Structure formats: C-alpha cells, structure tokens
Give the backbone structure.
Amino acid sequence: MSNVVSKEVQLARRPEGMPKLEDFQVKEVDIAAPGDGEVLVRNIWMSVDPYMRGRMYDRESYVPPFQIGAPLEGGAIGQVIASNSDKAAVGDYVQSMLGWREYFVAKGEEVQKVDTSSGVPIQAFLGTLGMPGMTAYAGLLRIGELKDGETVFVSAASGAVGAIVCQIAKAKGCFVVGTAGSDEKCKWLEETAGIDKAINYKTCGDLTEAVRAAAPKGVDVYFENVGGEHLTAALENMRPMGRLAMCGMISQYNDTEPKPGPSNLIYMVGKSLKMQGFIVSNHFDLLPDFIRDMTKWIGEGKIKWEETVEDGIERAPNAFLNLFTGGNMGKMLVKVGPDKAI
Ligand SMILES: NC(=O)c1ccc[n+]([C@@H]2O[C@H](COP(=O)([O-])OP(=O)(O)OC[C@H]3O[C@@H](n4cnc5c(N)ncnc54)[C@H](OP(=O)(O)O)[C@@H]3O)[C@@H](O)[C@H]2O)c1
C-alpha cells in the first residue's frame, strides 16, 4: 500500500431519465504503491462532460458503459507524486482519463505530460485547449466545411464546445448566431465572445422565427449540440448547400423513449444539405493544427472562455447534473486537489 486513501465517485445504479444524486456514491479506497513502470498521481482538476450520460446506459457504444460500483472515468489533470516510470517524473503535470477520483496509480504510458510553459491556466487543457476545443475545431472546420464569411448557427452556444465554435467562426469572419438558456449567457455571447446575435431559446417564443430574424439571409453551417426543436429550427433556416455538423443532442440524453425525428427533414433534399455526425476522437490527426491555431487565436485575444468550478470530489455528481439544467457557464470543472500536489 502507498498509505494514500483516495475518495472516488462510483456509479451506484443506472439513472432512469434525468440522473439523481442517489445514482452516485462517494467511496474511500486504499491506493496501492506504484509498481514497476507505474506512477502515482494526485488529481487537481477533473472534467465533467455530457457524453458521460451515454456511458451510464448498459449498451454498446463508441465507449464501453460504466459499471455499477466502479469509479466513473473522465478527463483529469494532476501531478505525479511518486514515479517508477521513465514516462513521467515526480512533479510533472499529467493528463489522463482517470478523473472522478483524487488519486490513482497507472502505467506511465496511460498519462500524458501537460506542457505548462505557455502560462495558460492548466485546466484549459480540459476545455479550450483540450477535448471540447478540439471538438469545436474539428466539427466546425472539417465536418462543417466552414468557409470564411459564412453564416453560422450554434446551439448551446455559451458552453464549453459552443463558445469555442462561435469564436472560431468569428475569427474566420463569419456572421454568428447562437442560442443559450439565460439572458446572462446571451449577454456574455454578444459582449465578450463577440457573436452577432444571441437568442435565449427559453424566452424567444418560436425558435424558427427567432433564428430567421437573427439571420435573415439563412444559415450556411449549423453546429448541433442540442437536438429537438433546435434541429427543426436549423433545417427551416438552412441555405441551399448548407452543412449540419452533428456534435451532440443533449436535450435527448435523458429521454426514456425514442423521440420522433424533425418533421421537416425533407429540406435535406430540396436544399441539397449535408448532415454528418462525428466523434472527436476520430479526428485527432488535426491535433497539431488545432494547437497551432488555438494558441495563435488565444494570443491574439480572439478566444475567451468561462469556467464553472465545483469544489471537492464530493461535488462531482452535482456538477454533472447541472449540465442538464444549464447550471454551467462555459466549461464545467471540479477542483479535486490543490494546485501543487507536492
Ligand atoms: N461529438 C463529440 O465528439 C463531442 C465531444 C464533446 C461534446 N460533445 C457534445 O457537445 C455538446 C456540448 O457539450 P459541452 O461539453 O460543451 O457541454 P456544455 O455546452 O458546456 O454544457 C451543456 C449545456 O447544454 C445546455 N442544455 C442542457 N440541456 C438542454 C436542453 N434540454 N435544451 C437545450 N440546451 C440544453 C445547457 O446550456 P443552456 O443554459 O444554454 O441551456 C448546458 O449548459 C453536448 O451535446 C455534448 O454531448 C460532443
């Protein structure tokens, strides 16, 4: 044993519909001492992501389901506090998929060193400079085939992915319309992220008409994060030859019955639209381009972001639930340990 006791968040039972706090349990576990080739890491930040809801169903998908009584997994950044590996030394900051716990032991190959030299806050590697930023980049530029100066419509526009989509599009000289679930989020989108029109989808009335009023010439690229009424509104407003980049449909992740598709899918034909779903991990070949462009845009002040931080591993389930009620502004994170673990 390493004499380290770690709290971890486990799945207590599979959620039915909207997840509840009782679906999770926090347990203390003893952490083994690192063996040959292994590192002991104390996590500092962990990422909370909507896709984890899909892993709570007992079904095959592009990632295996979580098991009841086992810790959840997700992106995390921590510091190596003991090492028997030549891949990472004591004191190194490392990224892993072993979040939702305070400490862990893993093979050196299972963690990736984080380059802290740029001075960007380390947790940005879970957001703007990490998986959500990469999702925005690959989804908008490769799947959406964005061209400079086009009109872009983004749903969940103030979130971790959406806010970066909006600002990449602005950096490319596009006209950008986004939706969000509060006036405060809409104000941030227009005044800080610099988009052309933010729509509060909860108070705007007919969403199709609100998008039409915001983008009267129509939409060239729709970046889909929400599904349902948003997809119907997008299809209605697409211009001929438009592209729909299908990133996520959070409004349907807790559905207990399949929903009917949009009633206006027929526009795909008449407007010659292209709709393509994607999973970011299939586009990691773009990583060097993403890091180059994102670092440049951040340096030029073109990309801003917000974080919502819950404090302590026990708060991780609350953070997860808040994703489905709009309780986060920007990237949802949990601070699970001190900035310097050693
Ligand atoms: N394809 C991929 O590889 C990939 C990778 C990462 C993320 N994603 C997807 O990208 C989307 C955004 O993820 P994220 O990490 O950036 O999360 P996020 O946008 O930071 O957080 C989720 C947001 O979704 C909105 N929302 C929740 N329920 C909603 C509903 N019923 N109707 C409308 N809006 C709702 C809420 O904002 P409001 O206040 O605006 O309602 C909430 O803040 C998700 O669909 C996620 O699954 C896909």
Observations:
- The domain at 4-126+306-335 is CATH 3.90.180.10 (Quinone Oxidoreductase; Chain A, domain 1).
- The chain is about 25% helix and 25% strand.
- Residues 49-51, 132, 135, 156, 158-162, 180-182, 185, 225-226, 247-248, 250-251, 278-280, 323-324, 326, 328, 332 surround NAP (CB under 6 Å).
